[in-house]
């Protein structure tokens, strides 16, 4: 994979990794896994990644589900799988949460995760962006946890309802009844760990692939967003 610079590099303060999509055949962005190894393996089997394909995760690989360690091993060991940092990875790194069984290699991997992965015209972050401000004014914390510019809860209005790019933003963090595909925003957290789905977006063909996850955690009715996806 080629990494490089773009105008995006010159305007943001948070750490990110720039990739060149032309170096890859098929490219996918995958939603929050939350330790759901079985769903992850089922989705990767569906995608049938070739040697020159790439899948980028929106973060929150860990916690809530039962197999966080195995999920980290699976993603870390493949050059075809990349991830940004989610708020649950940040909680582990900052000592706000812990996971038994993680070793030094896991900690180094979590520390290495960028806040964003970008390419010309697109960016993957965990949370989102404030549509009222340019990207140059966003901190790592902003893009990692954004749901609503007026608060971090599920009461809305949500940032992606009024955001107009570029870039097109691929995100997780906000649990959705169904994936969202808009001109400038693609939402991919479809509640896998709550018995929803683990969802991937095919960047080349503009289509979704999903598999059903196990119901590992009861989801509060407050953490549930139903939109028309337009």
TrEMBL record:
One Gene Ontology cellular component: cytoplasm
Source species taxonomy: Archaea, Methanobacteriati, Methanobacteriota, Stenosarchaea group, Halobacteria
Protein name: Metallophosphoesterase
Species annotation: Natrinema zhouii
Record domain Calcineurin-like phosphoesterase: where: 27-177
One Pfam family in the UniProt entry: Metallophos
Gene Ontology molecular function: phosphatase activity
């Amino acid at each position: 994979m080629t990494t490089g610079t773009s105008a995006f590099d010159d305007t943001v303060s948070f750490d990110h990794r720039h990739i060149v999509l032309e170096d890859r055949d098929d490219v996918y962005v995958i939603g929050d896994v939350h330790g759901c190894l079985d769903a992850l393996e089922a989705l990767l089997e569906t995608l049938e990644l070739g040697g020159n394909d790439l899948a980028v995760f929106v973060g929150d690989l860990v916690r809530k589900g039962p197999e966080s360690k195995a999920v980290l091993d699976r993603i870390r060991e493949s050059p075809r799988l990349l991830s940004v940092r989610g708020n649950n990875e940040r909680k582990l790194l900052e000592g706000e949460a812990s996971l038994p069984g993680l070793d030094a290699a896991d900690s180094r991997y979590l520390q290495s995760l960028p806040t964003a992965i970008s390419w010309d015209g697109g960016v993957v972050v965990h949370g989102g962006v404030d549509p009222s401000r340019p990207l140059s004014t966003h901190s790592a914390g902003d893009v990692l946890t954004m749901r609503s510019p007026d608060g971090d809860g599920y009461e809305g209005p949500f940032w992606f309802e009024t955001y107009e790019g570029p870039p097109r933003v691929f995100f997780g963090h906000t649990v959705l009844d169904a994936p969202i595909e808009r001109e400038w925003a693609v939402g991919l957290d479809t509640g896998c760990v709550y018995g929803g789905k683990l969802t991937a977006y095919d960047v080349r063909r503009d289509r979704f692939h999903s598999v059903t996850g196990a119901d590992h955690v009861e989801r509060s009715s407050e953490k549930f967003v139903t939109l028309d996806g337009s």
